[in-house]
Amino acid sequence: MNHAKLIRGRLLSFKRAPLALTDIESYRYEHDGGLLISNGKIAAAGDYAAVKAQAPEEIEEIDHRPHLILPGFIDCHMHFPQMQVVASYAGNLLEWLNTYTFPEECRFVESDHAARIAAHFYDELLRHGTTTAAAYCTVHKTSADAYFAEAMKRGMCMVGGKVMMDRNAPQGLLDTPQIGYDETRAVIAEWHGKGRNHVAITPRFAITSTPQQMKAAQALAQEFPDLFIQTHLSENHEEIRYTGELYPEAKDYTDIYAQYGLLGKKTLLGHAIHLSDREADALSEAGAIAIHCPTSNLFLGSGLFPMKALMRRDKPVRVAVATDIGGGSSYSMLRTMDEAYKIQQLLGERLNPLESFYLMTRGNAEALSMVEDIGTLDVGSTADLVVLNAASTPAMQLRMETIKTLPEELFLLQTMGDDRAVVETYVAGMARKPVERGETAAAS
Ligand code: GUN
Ligand code: ZN
């Protein structure tokens, strides 16, 4: 039962994007904080003693001191059917897709397999402190059914979509413009708005969709203008070149999606690394979101995403961050932001730890237009939380001895932290970090 409870610890929640490491106005920090949770929502937040004074006398209390309590992490781009693709040895994106990823995704026609992997997927998210994600399923409706059914079981706020793809992949992974349209409509009818589920219209990328299928995606976007649209954009030079060949009439890669009415405020564009100025302007004008997937971009050798440069343009591009499992190599948003930091270093830019923690929480919630519900510890939000311990390993514990400020502690968490730093994950006020299953099989 989701009864009222009082959670005590060090609270951190962002009010807006931090402008500098010294921007203390951008966040709210309570050294001895309390969160009053009622019906899965945050009913009061602030100084522990003040919040306790508002709570019923017999209330259950959970004391997480000295750990940090933040809004649960949000992951804006990943692929749930790629859990068994992570760590596949390939030279580049297209080789990786054709050699490992497409064959693996064919298995999701089997609903038992889809259900088994979905359970593991949510376990892994929660183990890493991620409470909301936007993920691709496969072309098979069975995969979307498994994904959303499991999200409902866990009470999690999830975005997902049946992938539309009708060319340039194995037969077992292809639909048609009509089937892609019909099955996406069926997924919307069965799952959108149920529990905390959000269905996304999901044409995989221009290479795997014919112009006829793009028209079908456009029709869906017109019929369901509030839905997310997710796809991939400008990840790899060979991909960009081939895409140009397939759509010779388009000005550039971005223009393909624009021509089919797929660029808007709820459009989530994975990668978007190699954009021209014209394309960045087009994203900015549409309010579409470029999603940085740093571990994936490094792992596949795709390129260095110019995040800070895109954010400070005269026409800024909205940016979010994500793991991109299984092109990405870690489920952890902490590991993800460590790699994001290093990419900006290589580009001669600074990404400070306040910005990183903002992006993983409120920033990604704003990118998903969900900041009223997730991404902060504000009263009225759903109590999706992560509890973090910056001394979770011996090496981190030793480093913590010399750390004096909150930004230093956050930077340590980002630089050395992973799932071991996640003490607990709450979904709608319920503790949900999975206990270890012990279900591992040795490779033969
Ligand atoms: N582009 C099209 N499909 C994919 C995918 O599954 N992963 C990545 N990283 N890029 C893609
Ligand atoms: Zn992707």
From TrEMBL:
<comment type="pathway">
    <text>Purine metabolism; guanine degradation; xanthine from guanine: step 1/1.</text>
</comment>
<dbReference type="InterPro" id="IPR032466">
    <property type="entry name" value="Metal_Hydrolase"/>
</dbReference>
<dbReference type="GO" id="GO:0008270">
    <property type="term" value="F:zinc ion binding"/>
</dbReference>
<comment type="function">
    <text>Catalyzes the hydrolytic deamination of guanine, producing xanthine and ammonia.</text>
</comment>
<keyword id="KW-0479">Metal-binding</keyword>
<keyword id="KW-0862">Zinc</keyword>
<dbReference type="GO" id="GO:0005829">
    <property type="term" value="C:cytosol"/>
</dbReference>
<dbReference type="InterPro" id="IPR014311">
    <property type="entry name" value="Guanine_deaminase"/>
</dbReference>
<protein>
    <recommendedName>
        <fullName>Guanine deaminase</fullName>
        <ecNumber>3.5.4.3</ecNumber>
    </recommendedName>
</protein>
<comment type="similarity">
    <text>Belongs to the metallo-dependent hydrolases superfamily. ATZ/TRZ family.</text>
</comment>
<dbReference type="Pfam" id="PF01979">
    <property type="entry name" value="Amidohydro_1"/>
</dbReference>
<dbReference type="GO" id="GO:0006147">
    <property type="term" value="P:guanine catabolic process"/>
</dbReference>
<dbReference type="InterPro" id="IPR006680">
    <property type="entry name" value="Amidohydro-rel"/>
</dbReference>
<dbReference type="GO" id="GO:0008892">
    <property type="term" value="F:guanine deaminase activity"/>
</dbReference>
<dbReference type="InterPro" id="IPR051607">
    <property type="entry name" value="Metallo-dep_hydrolases"/>
</dbReference>
<dbReference type="InterPro" id="IPR011059">
    <property type="entry name" value="Metal-dep_hydrolase_composite"/>
</dbReference>
<keyword id="KW-0378">Hydrolase</keyword>
<feature type="domain" description="Amidohydrolase-related">
    <location>
        <begin position="69"/>
        <end position="429"/>
    </location>
</feature>
